[in-house]
Amino acid sequence: MKLKFELKYTDKLTASRLGTITYNGKTYETPMFMPVGTNATVKTLSPEELKEIGSGIILANTYHLWLRPGEDIVAHAGNLHKFMNYDGPILTDSGGYQVFSLAKQKDITEEGVKFKNHLNGDTLFLTPEKSIEIQQKLGSDIMMSFDECVKWPSTYEYVEKSVERTLNWAKRGKSVKKENDQLLFGIVQGGEYEDLRKHSAEEIVKMDFDGYSVGGTSVGEDKPTMYKMVEYSTKYLPIDKLRYLMGVGDPIDLIENVMRGIDIFDCVSPTRLARHGHAYTKHGKINIKNSKYKEDFTPLDETCNCYACKSYTKAYIRHLITNDETFGARLLSIHNINYLHRLMDEIRIHVKNGDMKEFRDQFIKDYYGK
RNA sequence: GGAGGAAUAGCGAAGUGGUCAAACGCGGCAGACUGUAAAUCUGUUCCUUAGGGUUCCAUAGUUCAAAUCUAUGUUCCUCCA
To answer: How is A324-363 classified by DSSP, letter by letter?
Structure first.
């Protein structure tokens, strides 16, 4: 079944938007946060738990599923939905992030990217065509173009070349796409350079993708730079298509970037931080391993409605985490993803109310205590 | 009763004359994490007023210098009776 996006409302004071995604008879509201399940699982959580906390689209990763179990096995299972038992929408990243996190600069050529398989040392070669072919076999609902996620900072000269390469790759990927229900998104790159972002966005829009991503953020840049990168990108994107900011999930960044016209976000933070013992709360991020929680028999966040907060205390979760008990990671993952989903709920209300700036300022006071 | 062996920081364990406040691991205390090579990684962990001070079972020695060598004692382990 095909995923459909409808823009419902645009804020007058900011670039914030409200919309709906319909898929498989269900409607999801945007702006939305998407949990990451790289390896065809949102680490420690079942699909039922994800639905319980209100997850909509979730992510999976082309590169990792290509290596294991292999796209053919997923295809033999039916598709990714059947393989992992998730009937909500699934978005696959193209492997573009692995160009940033795994490849060396010299491994990147016009043709594609050479990887050293971290599992057995094989040399692998991923191209834009190959990435789309794998994603088609995986059967995700939203496929991403294969791009180069450039490290920050990078020189203008390097980013300029990289943008051309990513545009080329987008075209090549699109050319092998079959006519089916899968959507394909283009990705805007261009580093922190306004004219390169503009060029990247305008050219990618000309290719007419089903939606657009802002890439190349959350690679170590400071927040003002990230926000600029987003602004330089979204202002050249068509209003009626979904806009996805890749890899961003810090609570304040969700608010700031909704205000800059983003509809959907993904980030590993809630689940990784959970496994490392951290919880988002109304009053900032806490480290449950800190000894001050040893005898704290209150919930992670008094204002939270999640399963972990309804039934368990900080002291107990601390005990689980310090003993490497998986249940602790699961409780914190439930809590953190739920926190981001509830934050998006609030954001939607404030977009509708037209008071996003006030909401942002109050959030900063509560979260950072200033 | 006899014969061997061992005692090192919170725990385990290296070190067997100077480069030793003492490797390493665990535990403890903190920190980082952004389209997940991440249930991972980093720092720190005798005391300190930051100048130093006090350590390697105890005591007495040898030596310019001892965790390291000697003597005695204490405790523990193994084997034999």
So the answer is: T-HHHHHHHHHHHHHHHHHHHHHHHHHHHHT-HHHHHHHH
